[in-house]
Amino acid sequence: MNSPLKIVFCGLSITSSWGNGHATTYRSLLRALAGRGHQLLFLERDQPWYAGNRDLPSPEYARTELYRSVSELKDRFAADIRDADAVVVGSYVPDGIAVGTWVTREARGIRAFYDIDTPATLAMLEGRTADTNAIPYLSADLIPRFDLYLSFTGGPILSKLEKNYRARMARPLYCSVDMERYYPEEHPIAWDIGYLGTYSDDRQPALDRMLVSLARQWTNGRFVVAGPQYPADLLWAANIDRIAHLAPNEHRKFYNSQRFTINVTRKDMVMAGFSPSVRLFEAAACGTPIISDDWPGLGTFFRRSGPEMEILVARGATEVHQYVTGIPERERVAIGQRARARVGREHSSSRRAIQFESYLNEVLTGRP
């Protein structure tokens, strides 16, 4: 794609990373797209829980506008939607069905849906979600109206989207990391094991198995859990530090202050497989060795065995403890270095921007 494009994103949030992983993903992708010369507009619903937690109210790489209702969105930005070369509607956008219906009718350029929550989306469409507060942001009959379905989850779920839901073209667009912002640096090691993530009912049991129970057994170990929305009545061991919210500009220091970091995955993501999290790539970019739960497709992102191993896989506290206490320091550092090299080759924000462009070109030309 040789000429710069006008691209509009309607996403959950780019201004606030509080309680969501969407902002980090959008920031990484849009910064890289802007670096490649594209003209970007991000439209975000003004929500009260984000209003007081905006850690990036005005991204320098994209014009960002807030709106308070679907009618305001239509009144103020119809011309932008019509004039854009591509319009991307994201998952979990409030009143997303109404927004998507309007965009697919109004836009003259490529119309894309970016699903940062694909397994949760299918669970919602199939009536399998346990989250009674989940908002309906996509409908089955809306999917075929998009020219392109971009998915955070790869693997078999892509063919399911095309076969069962008549998606015209489903392609993986995983999260990514800005290698210029995440890298190894010298910091005093504050913790043996850390974890960064928003609380989730279906992820907490894995965190309990791999970190919390180990902290209770290994009283000399030093642990940290960072992230919002953890219930106030959760009981933490005395050697677990808690950080309620960690802004993105503090993530690099956080990862570089750990000897190892834990990665745990939500139930829907484990079942679907091929669903790496942005925290996985951030930690790897910092050269911090990752101890992850297991899920289908993990080996397509990092080598999980052999002399060139890039990630460690554990089922519970015993294996985590064996890694942390048994791996020599030189090998610990080498595992992190190999993971960083892998992410730099395949999962950097610049690499993801090029993939995004290639998908738009595929829509335009009909050639993969």
Topology:
Elements: E1 6-11, H1 22-35, E2 39-45, H2 48-51, E3 63-67, H3 70-83, E4 86-90, H4 96-106, E5 110-115, H5 118-125, E6 148-151, H6 156-164, E7 170-172, E8 191-196, H7 204-217, E9 223-226, E10 240-243, H8 251-256, E11 258-263, H9 267-272, H10 278-285, E12 290-292, E13 312-313, H11 317-326, H12 329-346, H13 349-365
Parallel strand pairs: 1-2, 1-4, 2-3, 4-5, 5-6, 6-7, 8-9, 8-11, 9-10, 11-12, 12-13
Helix pairs in contact: 1-13, 3-4, 7-11, 10-12
Walk me through what this model shows.
- The mean pLDDT is 95.
- By secondary structure, the chain is α/β, with parallel strands linked by helices.
- It has helices at residues 22-35, 48-51, 70-83, 96-106, 118-125, 156-164, 204-217, 251-256, 267-272, 278-285, 317-326, 329-346, 349-365; strands spanning 6-11, 39-45, 63-67, 86-90, 110-115, 148-151, 170-172, 191-196, 223-226, 240-243, 258-263, 290-292, 312-313.
- The chain contains 13 helices and 13 strands.
- The protein is globular and about 60 Å long.
- The strands form 2 sheets. It has a 7-stranded parallel sheet with strand order 3-2-1-4-5-6-7, sandwiched between helices.
- The chain has 2 domains: 6-176 and 348-365, Rossmann fold (3-Layer(aba) Sandwich); 191-346, Glycogen Phosphorylase B (Rossmann fold, 3-Layer(aba) Sandwich).
- Strand 5 (110-115), helix 5 and strand 6 (148-151) form a beta-alpha-beta unit.
- The two termini are 13 Å apart.
- It is 38% helix and 17% strand.
